Amino acid sequence: MAVLLLFFLAFHFSRSISTLAQFLPATRLRESGCGGFVVSVVDYGAVGDGRRYDTWAIQAAIDECAAMGGGRVRFPAGRDYLTATVVLRSRVVLEVEKGARILGGTREEDYPADAARWYVVLAENATGAGITGGGEINGQGEAFVVRRDPRKNVMVSWNRTGACLGDECRPRLVGFIDSKDVRIWDITLNQPAYWCLHLVRCDNTLIHDISIYGDFDSPNNDGIDIEDSNNTVITRCHIDTGDDAICPKSSTGPVYNLTATDCWIRTKSSAIKLGSASWFDFRRFFFNNIDIVDSHRGLGMQIRDGGNVNDIVFSNIRISTRYYDPSWWGRAEPIYITTCPRDSNSKAGSISNVLFVNISATSENGAFLSGSGGGLLRNLRFENVQLTYRRTTRYPGGLYDYRPGCQGLVPHRMGGIMMEHVSGLEIENVKMRWIKSNSRGWNNPLEFTPSTVNKLSFHEWLSDVS
Ligand SMILES: *[C@@H]1O[C@H](CO)[C@@H](O)[C@H](O)[C@H]1NC(C)=O
Ligand SMILES: *[C@@H]1O[C@H](CO)[C@@H](O)[C@H](O)[C@H]1NC(C)=O
Ligand SMILES: *[C@@H]1O[C@H](CO)[C@@H](O)[C@H](O)[C@H]1NC(C)=O
Ligand SMILES: *[C@@H]1O[C@H](CO)[C@@H](O)[C@H](O)[C@H]1NC(C)=O
Ligand SMILES: *[C@@H]1O[C@H](CO)[C@@H](O)[C@H](O)[C@H]1NC(C)=O
Question: Per the record's keyword annotation, is Cell wall biogenesis/degradation included, yes or no (predicted)?
C-alpha cells in the first residue's frame, strides 16, 4: 500500500506580528487508500500517435482502476496520447512516464458542455487522486493563439455558444474540484491554453517537484490557482509562464493554510498573487525560499472584493522585477500590496499582519503599499530587506497601477516605498540602494500622504545612491 505524504501546517499563529516569524510547516504521514492495481492505457486500446483520440481508452483504464479500489494508470514512454477531457477518480494516480505526453484536445467539442469543467484532466469529489510519472501533460496552448504579438498574444474565445462569456473562454489544463488528499509530483505541465493547475474547494493538497511552462506572451496561463482551498503545500516548483504563477483566490469560500517553498518563478505578471477574486478571507500563508526572476511583479496582493487577509509571511525571497508592456497588470513593483473596492458595488477588505523577512530585490520601481478608505493595511513589518533600484528597460515609469477596477492607472511620482492608508509599518534593517538614472522622481525613498499613514516605525533604515 502506497504511502501518501500529507503535509499539515503547524503554524503557531498569533495576532502579534513579532511571533509570525516562528511559524514553520510540520509534516505528518498518513496512509492513503491507494491500492496496488496498475494498468496501462495501451492495454485499453490507446494508440498514442498524437493524432487519434485516446479518450475512451484512458477513461476505461481509469474507471477500471477505480473499480479495483485504486492504483496507477500508466502512460508508457515514447508516445503522445491525445485526449478530450478525462475524469480522474478517487485513489487513482496517473503515471505519465518520462518521455510520454498527454495532449489536450484543441476543439470545443473535446470539453464538457459546462465551461466550469473545461479541463484536459479533471477530478471532482475525489479522495487520494494524483498525477506523477516524470512525463508531461500538454495543453497545446499555441493552437489557441489567434495572433502572435510579443506584447501580448490575442487568443481564441469559445464564447459563441454562450457556454462561457467574454474573452477568457478556453480550457484549463488540470483541475481538482471538491477533492481531498490530492498529490501531484514529478510531472511537467506544459503550454496550457488557459489556467494550468487549478484547485477548487480542495483540502490537503501536496504539490511537489513539478515544472510548469506557459507561453510568456499569452495571457491567463496562470501557474497554480488555489481557489477556496485549505491546507495546500507546494514545494520545489519551477514555473515559467506569462500570467500569475502562484495565485490563491477566494470565490465561494476562504483559503486557509497555504505554504509555498523552494520555488523558482518567472512571469510577465505576479509571481505570487493573492486575488484578484477575493470574496472570502485568506489566512495563514507562508512563502519561503523563492527566486523570482525578471517578473513584472514579485509578491502581490490584489484584494478587491471584501475578503480580509491575515497572517502572511514572506521569507528568504530573492526578486528581480522589470517593466513589460502596460497591457499586462504590473509596474515592476517587487512588492505590491493593495486593497480597494473593485467597483461601486464592492467592499474593500483589510490586510493585516504581513511579515517580509530576508528579502532582496532589484527592481525598476518601488514597493507599493496601498490600502483604501474602507480597507486598511495594518501591521506590516519589513525585516532585513534590501531594495536595489535599477532601470533596465525604456518603459516610462510614473504610474500607480490599481487595476483591476479601482482607480486604474494613475500618473504619480514614484518612490522607493509608496504608501497610502496604512496603519502600522515597522522597518527594521532596510537598505535602499539607487543605481543612478535620469528617470523622473528617481532616488525618492518614500512617497506618501501623512494623513492616511499612521504608526510608522523605523530602525536601521538606509537610502543611498551609488
Ligand atoms: C490550519 O492549520 C492549523 C495548524 O495546523 C490547523 O489547526 C487548522 O485547523 C488549519 N485550518 C484549516 C481550515 O484546516
Ligand atoms: C459531487 O458531490 C456533490 C455533493 O455531494 C454532488 O452534488 C455532485 O453531483 C458531485 N459531482 C460529481 C461529479 O460526482
Ligand atoms: C467573444 O470573444 C471575442 C474575442 O475575445 C470578444 O471580442 C467578444 O467580445 C466575446 N463575445 C462575448 C459575447 O463574450
Ligand atoms: C476551509 O476552512 C474554512 C474554515 O474552517 C471552512 O469554512 C471551509 O469550508 C474550508 N474549505 C474547504 C474546502 O474545506
Ligand atoms: C534570515 O536570515 C538570517 C541570516 O541568514 C537567518 O539567521 C534567519 O534565520 C533568517 N530568518 C528567517 C525568518 O528565515
Answer: no
Q: What angle do CA 207, 213, 215 make, to 5 degrees?
A: 145
Mutate to test the pocket of ligand 5, among 316, 356, 383, 386 (most ligand atoms within 8 A of CB): 316
Q: Across 251-407, where does the E strand assignment appear? A: 255-267, 270-276, 282-295, 297-303, 309-321, 335-339, 351-363, 367-370, 377-389, 399-401
- DSSP for residue 85: -
pLDDT at 36: 80
Give domain 2-139+170-465's CATH superfamily: Single-stranded right-handed beta-helix, Pectin lyase-like (2.160.20.10)
State the ligand closest to the CA atom of 428. 5
Average of pLDDT values for 41-46? 98
Element (H, E) at 403: none
Alpha-carbon span 273 to 432, nearest angstrom: 24
Q: What is the mean pLDDT of the chain?
A: 92
CA 275 to chain centre: 9
Q: Whose CA is nearest to atom 4 of ligand 5?
A: 358
In degrees rounded to 5, what are phi and psi of residue 183?
A: -135, 130
Q: Residue 24: what pLDDT?
A: 35
What is the predicted pLDDT for the residue at 439? 86
The model's pLDDT over 227-278, given as tens digits with 9 standing for 90+, comes to 999 999 999 999 999 999 999 999 999 999 999 999 999 999 999 999 999 9
Question: Does the global pTM surpass 0.90?
Answer: yes
Atom of ligand 5 nearest to the CA of 288: 14
With beta carbons less than 8 A apart as the criterion, state whether 213 and 240 touch.
yes
Sequence-distant (≥ 6) Cβ neighbours of residue 78 within 8 angstroms: 48, 99, 100
Is the CB of residue 336 less than 8 Å from the CB of residue 297?
yes
